Inverse folding.
């Protein structure tokens, strides 16, 4: 910030700077501190208005300084003291531009649109993907994962065995720490609540270089087996539940029923990836567990200084050989990533594609600006030629043109910045997609530098087109009658090339958005497994063993809650399960089949389902029947499976009923399959249904204490209804907080959010590209027509038919469009392979999309050509022939 | 004379002030209506210096924000005082007139 301020002050003339520079900096600093304390919006508003004020006053101050100096040098009778030639050029450029406001406004608006979109998207990419994490030397922090040979789990995290091997044998880390995100119930302080927690081993926080504002962090004694439970509060939770009282240290809260002593408070700046924990708990990893296969938490490490990612991978490959023999079939390989990449994996590709898309829009905008600039430069050919004739060098003339285009670029950048600010605000407010690190998206110094660079580059780019065309004015231009001859098509080569490029870029963008729209439609047509999701309200409750030790009582409590919910007016049905379709719960275990017993069967997703789950969700019963409360309480050996799984083993779902399966190879009883249900698209609509095994709520091995209720009713969506449901739960257990409250429709929408977001953004980018492209081609044809009015007049006078004239221009436009479409198709075909990972139900080279988009592009382009062509045909030969005489 | 200019002169009428103190005085005395941005304020100050309404004061404050970074203090010149007084008189007569008319308007209604 200091550097930025120093740089900004440099905008003022030297005399002003010496007198007031320090005061200006001090005032901005102190005012900023005040604005910052009133919130982010106030700070941003302050930054923007102050920047505008600084630029404005600096420009004005320089202007008057220059005027004074000129006055002085005139008085002195000499021409000395002109200062920096670029500064002079820019002053001249500013004056020249202000003389043609129409051109300036059009160019600035066109470019600002491109720069604004690019800036907004870049700030998203920067905030989400590139910005360093808020930890000391965060580039040394990595996440340590494995690649393995399991087909449905290509990337594996960590378990006790892998963690202890890494801990004992690593050589490249300063240290490693484990962590896991979790949810717990907090009771004993006002309303019961269900909060996010972060569990960490004692090494984790020190590796992040986190210092508590109060109390202490975990030490080794806190995460060993049998240690009394202790907790560290995050700043926000400390403020919210303890009112920021310093005597919070030493107090006790109940975490899932267990008393936990508060030992520390983290600073307000603490943020960890995408987690928003209320408090931190020790993560206890037991050496006694370190022999069987298990992957259920994350490990991060801080690299020793100077160690690279590939060195870390090498070291990891070495220590992986120390794993117990049971791990051999997994063929684990190292997978070490920067910690910042941990949270952003899947969304990264979408964001880069979108950034590329707005980059294309910017290029198209540049092409338009270049066209306008060419028109303007052409009008000034005489002036440029006179300059050349008077001895101006090539470079001097280039500077005249470039200073104008760069100045326009910078002004467009400023306007674009305001547009980007608005766009980011909108994006963050609507939060159309679950973006990780969404709070890090803002216009900061890095984004400003990016915008400045992009603006100057755009200015340079379209200016260079002008320089290339008019940089060396021949003396011939000066000859009288230079504008007299009819202009041939060849003279417009640069302009034509620009139009072809615009059409090609727009087409590429439109094809990509077309493919995304097809993907979106294909996704909408997938059967999710459930019906009428807007009618289904879901929420989770947790009944931990510490609160309800007996499993029988656990099941009875669940039944009473279900009964209480069913009594709420308007409720059609109630069901419960450990996991609702698409809610992201994932639990993979082997399932052993009596008929096809093998030692290592594939992993299946396990869920615990209660009576009413399938009926409430609208999941069809394909064969057999579903669970009853009686058999749940009596713990009868029954089980249900999904249709995909049934077909895998028994082809016909009906034949699966009556077959027997179990969860271990040899020591648990067989369970009879009593029903087969329709598939749930559990991994999202874009993925094939996973085989699912439904266990009763209580069973010998896989009991889940966090259970989701699904309630179907026409009243879903009203607050009153949700309150009644809450009350219904609390009549059974007043200490039970409701978590993950969302409708089934919301769950489904969030599973499609990435696609919808990409569709909307690409559709916007595509439309803007189409519009700019159409404006571009219109402008060129209109300009060429205006230059050829004389020729047209002669043609008409000589007897050309009225239809011939527009045909001549339309043919020209059609040639350009055809060339653009051909190039665009080739570019799109080359690029779509990159976005194929985002597509579903449509091939990257989808003939229908390609043909439809090309057709639409051709239609729009030809219409844009025809408009000026028609006007050209209305030329009155007498008028045109007379004007130039 | 602009509102900001008037308030700047008004702030200095009490004695010599340094940059940020001027800004704070302006905000306070205008009841928060004026919160000049740094660029505009120092540009105005620079013009007032040139026009001879304000001059740099010889005083140096005992407290300095950083060692070696002496603050500059500004004060009114005699001409500055005269112009401020003239402006104050003008504002006062304008205010009196306004009050008179408002009263008259109330009386009629």
């Amino acid at each position: 910030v200091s550097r930025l301020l120093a740089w900004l002050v440099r905008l003022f003339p030297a005399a002003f700077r010496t007198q007031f520079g320090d005061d200006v900096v001090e005032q901005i600093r102190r005012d900023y501190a005040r604005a910052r304390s009133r919130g982010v919006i106030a700070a941003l508003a302050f930054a923007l208005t102050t920047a505008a004020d600084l630029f404005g006053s600096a420009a004005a101050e320089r202007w008057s300084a220059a005027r004074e100096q000129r006055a002085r040098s005139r008085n002195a009778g000499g021409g000395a003291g002109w200062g920096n030639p670029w500064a002079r050029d820019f002053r001249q450029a500013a004056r020249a531009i202000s003389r043609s406001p129409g051109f300036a406004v059009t160019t600035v608006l066109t470019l600002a649109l491109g720069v604004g979109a690019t800036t907004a998207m870049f700030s998203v990419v920067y905030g989400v993907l590139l910005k360093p994490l808020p930890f000391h030397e965060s580039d040394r922090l990595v996440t340590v994962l494995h690649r393995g040979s399991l087909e449905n789990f290509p990337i594996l995290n960590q378990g006790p065995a892998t963690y202890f091997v890494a801990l004992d044998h690593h050589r490249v880390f300063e240290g490693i720490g484990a962590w896991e995100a979790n949810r717990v119930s907090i009771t004993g302080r006002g309303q019961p609540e269900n909060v996010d927690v972060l569990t960490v081993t004692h090494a984790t926080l020190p590796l992040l270089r986190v210092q508590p504002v109060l109390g202490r962090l975990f030490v080794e004694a806190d995460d060993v087996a049998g240690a009394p439970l202790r907790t560290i509060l995050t700043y926000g939770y400390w403020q919210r539940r303890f009112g920021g009282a310093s005597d919070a240290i030493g107090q006790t809260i109940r975490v899932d029923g267990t008393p936990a002593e508060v030992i520390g408070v983290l600073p307000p700046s603490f943020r960890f990836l995408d987690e928003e924990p209320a408090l931190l708990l020790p993560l206890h990893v037991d050496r006694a567990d370190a022999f069987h296969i298990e992957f259920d938490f994350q490990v991060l490490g801080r690299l020793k200084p100077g160690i690279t990612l590939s060195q870390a991978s090498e070291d990891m490959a070495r220590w992986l050989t120390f794993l117990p023999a049971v791990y051999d079939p997994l063929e684990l390989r190292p997978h070490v990533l920067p910690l910042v990449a941990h949270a952003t994996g899947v969304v990264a590709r979408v964001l880069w594609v979108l950034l590329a898309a707005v980059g294309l829009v910017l290029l198209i905008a540049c092409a338009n600006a270049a066209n306008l600039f060419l028109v303007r430069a052409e009008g000034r050919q005489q002036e440029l030629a006179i300059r050349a004739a008077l001895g101006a060098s090539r470079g001097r003339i280039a500077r005249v043109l470039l200073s104008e285009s760069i100045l326009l670029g910078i002004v467009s950048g400023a306007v674009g910045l305001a547009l980007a600010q608005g766009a980011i605000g909108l994006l963050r407010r609507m939060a159309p997609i679950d973006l990780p690190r969404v709070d890090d998206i803002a216009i900061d110094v890095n984004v400003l530098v990016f915008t400045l660079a992009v603006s100057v580059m755009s200015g340079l780019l379209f200016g260079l087109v002008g320089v290339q065309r008019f940089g060396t004015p021949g003396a011939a231009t000066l000859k009288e009658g230079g504008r007299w001859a009819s202009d041939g098509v060849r003279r417009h080569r640069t302009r034509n090339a620009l139009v072809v490029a615009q059409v090609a870029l727009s087409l590429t963008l439109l094809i990509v958005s077309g493919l995304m729209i097809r993907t979106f439609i294909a996704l909408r047509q997938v059967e999710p497994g459930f019906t009428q999701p807007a009618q289904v309200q879901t929420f989770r409750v947790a009944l931990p063993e510490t609160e309800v030790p007996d499993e029988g009582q656990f099941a009875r409590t669940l039944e009473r809650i279900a009964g209480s919910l069913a009594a709420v007016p308007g409720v059609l049905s109630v069901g419960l399960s450990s996991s609702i379709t698409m809610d992201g719960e994932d639990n993979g275990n082997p399932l052993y089949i009596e008929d096809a017993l093998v030692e290592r069967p594939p992993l299946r997703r396990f869920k615990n389902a209660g009576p009413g789950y399938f009926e409430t969700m609208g999941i069809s019963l394909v064969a057999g029947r579903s669970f009853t409360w009686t058999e749940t309480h009596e713990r009868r050996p029954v089980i249900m499976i999904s249709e995909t799984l049934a077909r895998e083993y028994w082809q016909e779902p009906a034949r699966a009923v009556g077959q027997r399966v179990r969860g271990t190879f040899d020591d648990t009883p067989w369970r009879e399959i009593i029903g087969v249900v329709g598939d749930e698209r559990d991994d999202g609509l874009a993925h094939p249904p996973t085989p699912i095994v439904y266990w009763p709520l209580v069973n010998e091995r896989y009991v889940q204490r966090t259970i989701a209720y699904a309630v179907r009713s026409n009243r879903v969506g009203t607050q009153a209804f949700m309150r009644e449901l809450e009350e219904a739960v609390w009549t059974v257990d007043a200490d039970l907080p409701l978590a993950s409250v969302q409708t089934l429709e919301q769950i489904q929408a969030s599973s499609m959010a990435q696609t919808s977001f990409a569709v909307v953004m690409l559709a916007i980018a595509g439309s803007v590209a189409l519009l700019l492209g159409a404006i571009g081609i219109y402008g060129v044809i209109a300009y060429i027509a205006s230059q050829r009015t004389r020729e047209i007049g002669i043609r008409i006078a000589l007897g050309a038919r009225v239809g011939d004239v527009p045909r001549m221009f339309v043919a020209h436009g059609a040639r350009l469009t055809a060339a653009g479409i051909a190039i665009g198709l080739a570019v799109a075909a080359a690029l779509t392979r990159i976005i194929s990972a985002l597509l579903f139900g449509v091939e990257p080279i989808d003939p229908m999309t390609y043909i439809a988009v090309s057709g639409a592009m051709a239609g729009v382009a030809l219409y844009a050509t025809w408009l000026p062509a028609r006007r050209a045909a209305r030329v009155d030969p007498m008028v045109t022939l007379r004007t130039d005489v | 004379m602009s509102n900001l200019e008037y308030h700047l002169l008004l702030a200095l009428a009490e004695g010599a002030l340094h940059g940020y103190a001027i800004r704070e005085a302006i905000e306070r005395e205008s009841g928060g209506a004026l919160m000049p941005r740094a660029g505009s304020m120092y540009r105005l100050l620079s013009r007032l210096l040139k026009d001879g309404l304000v001059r740099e004061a010889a005083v140096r404050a005992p407290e300095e924000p950083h060692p070696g970074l002496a603050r500059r203090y500004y004060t009114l010149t005699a001409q500055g005082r005269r112009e401020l007084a003239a402006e104050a008189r003008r504002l006062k007569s304008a205010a009196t007139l306004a009050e008179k008319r408002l009263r008259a308007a109330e009386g009629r209604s």
About this structure: Residues 597 and 665 of chain A are 8 Å apart (CA to CA). The interface with chain B takes residues 16, 19-20, 22-24, 26-28, 30-31, 49-50, 53-58, 60-61 of chain A (CB under 8 Å). Chain A has 25 helices and 23 strands. The two ends of chain A are 63 Å apart (CA to CA).
